[in-house]
Amino acid sequence: DQQVKQNSPSLSVQEGRISILNCDYTNSMFDYFLWYKKYPAEGPTFLISISSIKDKNEDGRFTVFLNKSAKHLSLHIVPSQPGDSAVYFCAASEGSNYQLIWGAGTKLIIKP
Amino acid sequence: DVKVTQSSRYLVKRTGEKVFLECVQDMDHENMFWYRQDPGLGLRLIYFSYDVKMKEKGDIPEGYSVSREKKERFSLILESASTNQTSMYLCASSLSGTNWVEQFFGPGTRLTVL
What one-character DSSP code corresponds to residue B79? Predict the structure, then answer.
């Protein structure tokens, strides 16, 4: 039973427009959420995170929104650029047990 | 520039062989992790280590063991490889404390067991 779900395996967005990647979770005890980005033939790299005490965190073109009542978070990329084409993973943690629970990933394709 | 290296990018082994996957980090990180990534399942934690000679089981430790004799090196061992262990294996490291969630990954080893 997957505790973190990314229901869209892929997403295609025009360059310059907004990309919205979604993630749902089932465990209400999760208190920290992260997004990682992965290019082919490379390991994932940390992108942005949010604590459960916040509902928004922004870093340049990237914003993560957290809706705890809906157990939903989203990553907004504005404006989308060709270099943003990658697989994006959502991950969550509960306390400091050193275990991240990962979603299956969403492949983002930015069309020129 | 921080770096996590894995000994092989691609590996092909036969069923029943003992397989060693090596990971080295140069960031003096306390924590090291081994994951496997399979299509449709995301990353799943096999084992992690928070200090030299210390190890903890993750979600899927069956069929695997680990070794951490030095701080910079974390090895994953498949005692007797099976076809269902064909996968992408990713090593990661992180600092201790609240920063443990920001993990730095190696490029991965794609293991095929025939």
Answer: S
Instruction: Give the C-alpha separation, A8 to B84, whole Å.
Output: 26
DSSP one-letter string for B20-75: EEEEEESS--SEEEEEEEETTTEEEEEEEESSTT--EE-S--TTEEEEEEETTEEE
Selecting from A44, A100, A105 the residue whose C-beta is nearest the C-beta of B101 gives A100
Structure-token pair, residue B59:
């979600």
Q: Would an 8 Å CB–CB cutoff place B62 in contact with chain A?
A: no
Distance CA A34, CA A51 (A): 9
Residues paired with A65 in a beta bridge? A56, A74
Look at A30 and B98; give whichever has higher pLDDT.
Answer: A30
Number of CB pairs < 8 Å for A and B? 61
Does residue B1 carry a pLDDT above 80? no
Residue A76's CB is within 10 A of a number of other CB atoms, namely 16
Listing DSSP states for B86-106 in one string gives -EEEEEEEE-SGGGGGS-EE-
Answer whether A53 touches B (CB < 8 Å). Answer: no
Q: What is the rounded distance in angstroms from the CA atom of residue B65 to the CA atom of residue B113?
A: 17
- The average pLDDT across B9-18 equals 96
